[in-house]
Amino acid sequence: MNNRIKVLLTGSILAVLLFLFLFPERTIKLEAEGYDARFLPDETFELHWIHSIEKSEWYEVYEVEENAFLLTDTYFETFGAGVPHQSESEPEVTEEGFVKFTVNDTYDALYLNVSENVKTTIIQNQKEYPLYDFYEANTALEVKIVNTTLLQRITGG
Fold first, then answer.
1. How many CB atoms are located within 10 Å of the residue 72 CB?
2. Is residue 125 helix, strand or coil?
3. 28 Cβ neighbours under 8 A, 6+ residues apart
4. Tell me, what's the pLDDT at 45?
5. Contact, 60 vs 126, CB < 8 A?
6. What is the residue extent of each domain of the chain?
7. Strand pairing class (25-31; 38-41)
8. What is the dihedral sign for C-alpha 148, 152, 153, 157?
9. What is the largest CA-CA distance in the chain?
């Protein structure tokens, strides 16, 4: 292989690597004071937890819009404190026994207080992220949509 081809090949590889490491893409960023940031794909996810009073499972479905989260539906097993009372459509009961409310509210960011007691978990593409295993009890967590490079995601920035 002559020197000109080696230089072109090396330059091409470096250009691709620079592009991959420095080109920003939209991601979901989980940020808590004292912890490296975590990143998830900018795709629909569910937020699961155990209701602190009812002690029953509750979850919400979020779609990712341009720069916000759209809470489309909320699911819960029993009525009690903090349970919605209005829905865009008639609430329905799923085969699993959850009451489904259609919500369609938009949020710029989500603010969570992570706790092992309530088993705070994000589920995305059938992968579970048990936040209570990643953060200490009562950690305040901000979830937001950001543009980050691969380099930032690797270094936790």
1. 15
2. coil
3. 39, 40, 41, 42, 45, 64, 143, 144, 145, 146
4. 97
5. no
6. 26-148
7. antiparallel
8. negative
9. 75
> Is the pLDDT at 52 greater than 90, yes or no?
no
90 or 17, higher pLDDT: 90
In this structure, the number of other CB atoms found within 10 A of the CB of residue 119 comes to 15
Report the C-alpha gap between 116 and 111 in whole angstroms.
16
DSSP letters for 30-55: EE-TTS--EEEESS-EEEEEE-TTT-
Select from 13, 62, 72, 12 the least CA-distant residue to 42: 62
Kindly state the tokens that stand for 151: 């380099």
> Are 28 and 95 a contacting pair, CB within 8 Å?
no
Quick: pLDDT tens for 63-120: 999 889 999 999 988 766 666 666 667 888 889 888 888 888 999 999 999 988 899 9
Rg (CA), the chain: 20
Spell out the residues 6+ positions from residue 44 whose beta carbon is closer than 8 angstroms to its own.
61, 62, 63, 64, 124
Which two structure tokens, joined as six digits, stand for 134? 């990643």
